[in-house]
Amino acid sequence: MVEAFLGIQIISVCFAVFMLYVTFLHSKRGNLNKKESYIWNLLWFVFIYFALFPKVLNPVLDQLFVSRTMDLLMIVAFMILAYLGFMNHVGIKNLQNQIRKIVSQKAIKKAKRG
Amino acid sequence: MKIYLIIPSFNEGQRLAKTLKETKKFIAEKNTIVVDDGSRTPETLPKGSQTILIRHELNLGKGEAMKTGAKYAFNNGANAIIYIDADLQHNPKYLPKFKKLLKDNDLVFASRVPTLGAPLVRLLGNKFASIYINILFGIYISDLLSGYRALNKKAYQLLKWTSPRYGVETEMVARLGKYKHKLNWVEFPVETIYVNKYKGVTIIDAIKILFNSIWWKLS
Fold first, then answer.
1. What is the DSSP letter of A57?
2. Which of B60, B72, B75 is opposite residue A100, by nearest beta carbon?
3. Which fold would CATH assign to domain B3-218?
4. Is the CB of residue B158 less than 8 Å away from at least one CB of chain A?
5. Which of A74, B64, B73, B160 is positioned for an S-S bond with B78, CB 3.0–4.6 A?
């Protein structure tokens, strides 16, 4: 049980370090602005902290009636994913509508005979 | 009455040329609009043709192509528009009948008469869709998915559809169900040719349309 938990901790930290690297790359490329970059870095550092010291969450676990730290992290992760998925959906819909409008307007403007 | 013929087209190539050759017998080229919906090889018109060509740089779907054509036509003084598919699935000989019926109606539907050559899945699917829409919206069109139809400016303004792709035909009828007290409509039978069984509405499209129709009912 202890070994398995340690294994998960190592995987979690490796994943978070990889995500920090990805965040760094995209912030250097200008895909993320300063604010977004800070938020994502903070998120991954907090994730690493909880992965290494899961016991600090014990008081919260008791309050929320969640039995294990991993369960809490999974719940939070799903909530974040659901939020991001929804925001992606809205963003793509918005882009699609704008593209449709632009393509249609441009096509009408360029209409020609023969 | 100024009537424009709108032909949404996507990768039709030679079939479009054949369609145009037939349609010009009934509607003047200058009142014919081809909307090329981002074909891989851009659609071309015969040399010297007076037909209007509108090209979407990206493939937006049949519903959007129909909308672009309608916008152009009504902005250029059309009183009514007729839609016909670009693959010669619809016989252009019925165009004069459309013109005649548009004098007394806001919408005209040409419903394909089932033939022995028609794919069974299409026939059953189409019949189910007609009954389903009838239950939801109280309007029965025997060939719900036929793209051979006409509408005037008043009907276009009331029925403005939002479906970008193949749901457009069903949405139009669903919206007509909501405005049936304001619009006159008629349907008449036409013969049809099934050119390609892999074209048109797929099962996935049909499922999406089924779900969307509930939204059209509620909205």
1. G
2. B60
3. Spore Coat Polysaccharide Biosynthesis Protein SpsA; Chain A (3.90.550)
4. no
5. B73
**Please, are residues B27 and B5 in contact by the beta-carbon 8 Å criterion?**
yes
CA B174 to chain A, closest CA, distance in angstroms equals 22
Lowest pLDDT segment from A3-7, A94-98, B128-132, B201-205? A3-7
pLDDT category at A3 given cuts 50, 70, 90 is low
Nearest to B133 by CA among B166, B182, B164, B175: B175
Q: Please answer yes or no on whether A107 and B68 come within 8 Å at the CB atom.
A: yes
Q: Tell me the shortest Cα–Cα distance from A111 to chain B, in angstroms.
A: 5
Q: Do B58 and A113 touch (CB under 8 A)?
A: no
Local structure of A110: helix, strand or coil? coil
Per-domain residue ranges of chain B: 3-218
What residue segments make up the domains of chain A, in order of their start? 2-109
How large is the average pLDDT for residues B170-188? Answer: 93
Query: Quick one: pLDDT at residue B112?
Result: 85
Give B-chain residues touching A100 at CB under 8 angstroms: 60, 64, 164
Distance of CA B71 to the CA centre of its chain: 15
**Whether pTM exceeds 0.95:** no
What one-character DSSP code corresponds to residue B165? S
